[in-house]
Write a structure and sequence with these properties.
CATH architecture of the largest domain: Alpha-Beta Complex
CATH superfamily of the largest domain: Aspartate Aminotransferase, domain 1
Strand order of the largest sheet: 4-5-10-7-6
CATH class of the largest domain: Alpha Beta
Helix content: 25-40%
Largest sheet: 5 strands, mixed
Number of domains: 2
Bound molecules: pyridoxal-5'-phosphate
Number of strands: 10
Distance between the termini: 49 Å
CATH topology of the largest domain: Aspartate Aminotransferase, domain 1
Radius of gyration: 19 Å
């Protein structure tokens, strides 16, 4: 049996897929490698010759090809990936930790926080964390209040993609898990390269308004 993994969260760095017996590691280079929200590209890395041969001619049959311009943007992004990831990890942890103490917030789902479900797996397998995480508002906060929160943010843009320099926020309108309904109360943040203190102030102001 072959194992394939989407390693985008870890930027291919914070989780060593091949050491963990993954055969094929996939990344959306659109995110951290591109780093500036202007690239649409992916990579497929095979662990060894056998895994490579198992992929067969699929990519050619699907007509997948990349342009030299896109490749040059990815190569340029790689030159600053290390410094961006270091900064993003630090800012994101600072903001996630700040959110854990807020009276309107129930849980912060950042894998490096000991209070996050699944933290022990992250601790066992990852060498660091990156800049996307989510948090859940308390039960008494309505989806309309969560919308007010999002609309009150000034530094965070509303957006789904991530890995660029700007911070983004988005509400999950429809999230049901067994025995739980987080619809309209779960917010995903993507921290960018702005000053962490400014982002905390922005969150603080928006949380006060909702
Ligand atoms: C964005 C994303 C993708 C898809 O990448 P695109 O380049 O936008 O098509 C795949 N996996 C993960 C985890 C992503 O965040």
């Amino acid at each position: 049996m072959a194992v394939a993994l989407d390693n985008t969260y870890a930027a291919g760095i914070m989780f060593d897929a091949f050491v963990h017996d993954v055969d094929v590691s996939i990344q959306a280079l659109t995110k951290y490698v591109g780093g500036h929200s202007d690239l649409l590209l992916g990579s497929v890395s095979a662990r060894n010759q056998q895994a490579y041969e198992n992929l067969g001619p699929v990519y050619r049959q699907l007509g997948l090809a990349v342009s030299p311009d896109d490749c040059s943007l990815a190569l340029r992004g790689l030159q600053t990936l290390a410094v961006r990831l270091e900064q993003l990890e630090k800012s994101t942890l600072q903001i996630a930790e700040w959110l854990t103490n807020h009276s309107k917030i129930e849980t912060v789902f950042h894998p490096a926080l000991p209070t996050c479900p699944g933290h022990e797996h992250w601790k066992r397998d990852f060498s660091g964390s990156t800049s996307v995480f989510s948090f859940l508002f308390k039960d008494n906060i309505t989806p309309a209040q969560v919308e007010t929160f999002i609309d009150s943010l000034e530094l965070f843009y509303i957006g789904l993609s991530w890995g660029g320099v700007n911070s983004l926020a988005v509400v999950y309108p429809d999230v049901e898990r067994p025995g739980k309904d987080h619809s309209g109360k779960l917010v995903r943040l993507k921290i960018g390269l702005e000053q962490a203190e400014d982002l905390v102030t922005d969150l603080e102001n928006a949380l006060a308004k909702c």
